[in-house]
Amino acid sequence: MYRQAIRATKSVLRVNYFASFINMLPPLSDTFPDLIRSKFSSAVESGSLIFTPSSETDIPAADFTFRVRVAPSLSQKPVLRRDEDAGKPKFNPFLNPEADLFLCDLGDRYSLILNKFSIVPYHFLCITKQFEPQRAPLSEDDLSATWECLQANIQGGSRLLAFYNCGELSGASQEHKHIQFIPVPTDLKLLPDAAMAYGVPISKDAIGQFPTSHPDVPFAHFILPVPRNPSTEDLVMRFSSLLARTLTTLRERGQRNISFNFAMTKDWMFVAPRGQESYEGISVNATGMVGLLLAKSEEQLDFIKSTGPLEVTAKVGLPRITGDEQQHDY
Predict the structure, then answer these.
(1) What is the pTM of this model?
(2) Cα–Cα dist 145/140, whole Å
(3) CB-based contact 182:51 (threshold 8 Å)
């Protein structure tokens, strides 16, 4: 299983490290922020986009804060029908996106669309035009598309957070490859922001830095800073380094299912292996692993408070490997 995963990963992430330049995707139009704000408003008004009101509660943990969104009505979210008959194809909303949700194309391979079920305004997705599985690692083009989307200034006082839920236990809701983006307040310190403050070990490899982790967070996770104006090669090398350590952790912890969460801003890249999809009914995806949890009831919020958000995320993640976490096998 792991040999297949490694071969697939190396194939997807193959880079010519001696190349002097790797092309990025064409940049988004300067009008993209205006477009997404306009389309979001019109889609909500028409009913094509279902926006769920929510409240927010901050829970301190270590030297950063978990922000928990509480959306009781989300438990009544419509479920896209999946035919139980194995002879019929499952419904895929990304192969022919709704016109009211469509934003624009990004190169020849991707489309940007609004998230149909949103609890955060301007939540949008980067989807592959042709079907690609959500269990596959991010490719060079995926990382390039992610970086281009992160440049958009969607909402004042915020930065964009990109995230990708890979595998059955990651919190992914669709099998078609999609990278998601939400605005996050610039003054909200997430787990990777806090971890970066402890410094990043220096290495002698092409990246020049070893992945770091927050010393007070119990679950395995790996973080690297993103340089200013990175090339695709810069992004691929960092993701490859993080994924190698993630695969090692999954193997060492005896996981038969390869699932992980990826998150990224313009400042850092984060990957965490997953051991289960939820804990006590609380589903956790990549946003939860970096500090943005979702509760579908006041009872779930009370449970997160009493248990502690670090304990909840530790239950769905995997324990850190003791000793030198800079060692990896792939």
Answers:
(1) 0.90
(2) 9
(3) no
